[in-house]
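#help-structures

NK: newbie question. if I give both the sequence and a SMILES, will the prediction place the ligand too? trying with zinc ion
OV: yes, paste both and it writes out the complex. here, I ran yours:
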Amino acid sequence: MTKPTPFYLSTVILALSGTAVFLLKPGYNTNGINTEIFSWLTALFLLWVILSVCGVAFLSMGWFVPVFSRGSKRSKIVALSFDDGPHPETTPRLLTILETHKVKAAFFVTGSKAEKYPEIIRAIHAKGHLIGNHSYSHSWRNNLLSPRSLHTEIASCQNILAGITGEKPAWYRPPVGLTNPRLLPVLRSLGLRVYGWSIRTGDGVSVNWQRVEKRILKKVRGGDIILFHDGRSRGRSGTIGKETHTNADFFSVIENCIIALQKRGFALEVEGKTTQDKTSVPPGL
Ligand SMILES: [Zn+2]
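OV: that's the protein plus ligand as structure tokens.
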């Protein structure tokens, strides 16, 4: 049996508490409602609203869907992941760097870009990296879609990737990390699980690549999943503000991080590569 999500559990608890108060009317007297119990119920409801809003914004909470956001802290494995590609310049250069240093990484690609650059998807696949579903169009509006439209958005990316590589991805990373209660049934129907991250590099907004590198190397621990981007979700593909991911500094950061982490004894691999791989993925996912 699958474990209920915190959102589901908290909703049931809240509904049962409200029903119990309504039916049993504890403390009711001729003066009317018991204000103490009413205050507790209101506080409980507000807490549920706050947690649900945070659950939408913070993927690692796993509020609406179980999320694999890091491996064991005791492991000597760190995973590099790249979102929003493939990009015609950035991704091939990254693949060369990864191959040089014998690194396996994860690429969460969009269906629309995969359709445009199938040869890059084939190259990622041929090198043995993980290819994950990052939706078809990568719109923040995905989080407002009806279950049917959400299914179409994710399923079309699955089908495009399967058509190119012959394999359906096992993992999904929601665009901008946004989730909602409609997502879980869609993912279950497509056999997908959510792959999160534990270190956000800020490479999508920062123009200071040295700071990005320092922050990663200061924060990183065993089992971490590091989030980079090899493309941009909107606008001119590959551009990040005034900077671009075709900038030599970006590739230096990646290479320096790889060298530093390997010196610390970490293997740069991707855990939980398939849905069958349960080695480091927590139960319930
Ligand atoms: Zn993205």
